[in-house]
Amino acid sequence: MFDLGLSNEQEQLQSAYRGLFERECTTEIVRASEETGFSPGLWARVGELGAVLGEGQRGVVGAPRLAEPTLV
pLDDT by residue (tens digit) across 29-66? Predict the structure, then answer.
């Protein structure tokens, strides 16, 4: 049987991202970002937590996994 639960490190990472998005993604902030499609400040904060942005900062390339892969 596989343990599909999150490791302590993954739980800490999940908590850090959850807290960031709860603080930084209010309805007002999301609406203010509609014209550009993203918030540069938010993406800077995501990067500070360790997410790697791809070429041209168009998306998260190396975001940490929050769940272990399952075998089929």
Answer: 888 888 888 888 888 888 888 776 555 555 554 444 44
How many domains is the chain built from?
1
Contact assessment for residue 49 and residue 64, using Cβ atoms and an 8 Å cutoff: no
Half-sphere exposure of residue 64, counting CA atoms within 13 Å on the CB side? 18
CA 14 to chain CA centroid, Å, is 8
Query: What is the CB neighbour count within 10 angstroms for residue 59?
Result: 10
Domain that holds residue 22: 8-50
Nearest residue to 11 (alpha-carbon basis) of 70, 60, 66, 68: 66
Helices then strands, counting H and E runs in the chain, come out as 3, 0
Task: Give the list of residues 6+ apart from residue 47 with CB closer than 8 angstroms, or none.
Answer: 53
Within a domain: 58: no
